[in-house]
Amino acid sequence: MRKYYEDLKKIEDFSSFDRMRLLEYIHRQKFEATAICALGPTFWVELDYVIDLAKSAFTDTTEEKKEFFVKSILPLMQEKIATIQKIEKTLPENEFFYLRKDLKTFEEIFSHASNIIGKRLDYFLPFSLFLHAVESMTVLYPLREKSCDAGTIARKNYDILLARYLAGDFSQQLVDIIDYFIWVQAVFSKALDQDKQSFRSQIVHRLSEFTGTRSDFTNETEYSAKNFVLELHEVLTDINIKGKIKELYNRILETEVSVGECLRTIVSIFLDPQSDSGQINTLRDLAIASDLASSVTNHIKEGNNKGLYEDIALSKALKSYFMQVSRHMLGITEDMEICRLFEIMFYLEETAPSFIMHDDIITLLENSIEKFENQKEAISKSLNKTLDPESAELFKAKAKQVYAGKI
To answer: For the whole model, what pTM was predicted?
Structure first.
């Protein structure tokens, strides 16, 4: 019997792992499915919210919860069924097995519940079975603000993407606040009234917690005047940012402030309104990506290992900005090409100094170059502007300088 219970415990542990450890996989699956099925940026956020609502109803089998499920949750589930069926028909099972499995689970819960309710047998709703089905989900297990990459939700909004990137050098706590605002804005139209109040309370709590943390000097040995000047600058910046966040916090306490206005306030801390500079910088970034892919292709063909090392160094300096800002300013297809480019660069770095090559690498890079150049031309036409090559070179030099200062 002891062995039986030990084995049962192993099965239970396997089905109740921490989904936070799978965030990169979950976000990637949803991102690729969005690209293949041409979905809106908020689809997965809204679906996660509905699943979370359902999970909360399944946890409690009171009559009030059953009525809440039937009247409030089931209609929200129904809104997603047609899109889910379209996704199921489009996604290949060998690449999206777990996502397709979770989508099927959602569809079956809705179908089974609708059938029972249609026969006026509400008291037969198997809430415990539904709860187990949700708890067994992998990619669609409800994660609320962590359900989808915040950059993907905020795509094409250059000011927010850049402010989020800049905030990362200051405080991960502030990035989390920005991500929460992005998530609330995306899900707000589907949220129930009581949840909207909960969102406001959570925003107040997060801002209060952030402004309440102290800014301290470090006390290290060999502390030079240079260290003091750099740290003084950081502390003064810290005080300035927290002061502006405190102003926002007070405004929220005194009156109704929209999520959009909250985001605009935080953006204004880091940069002035950018007008069309987002598109201009996207044009610059496409040129840099295309040049990098071309350089790697040429160096592979020439067998120029020194050149490849230089390409890898540049890609490492650019990666953070391109993955957090640039890719989200592009169409889904070009977004995927940016991700592929940096994956190839990572592969080349891992195989150095031998640089194990496959013919497919050059083909993939050449396809990426073509897509980057086509998108460059399209943006250039829409802006009626051509790119100044010097701006791309200056940005690369600055990226290398910043990266060198961090390592």
So the answer is: 0.88
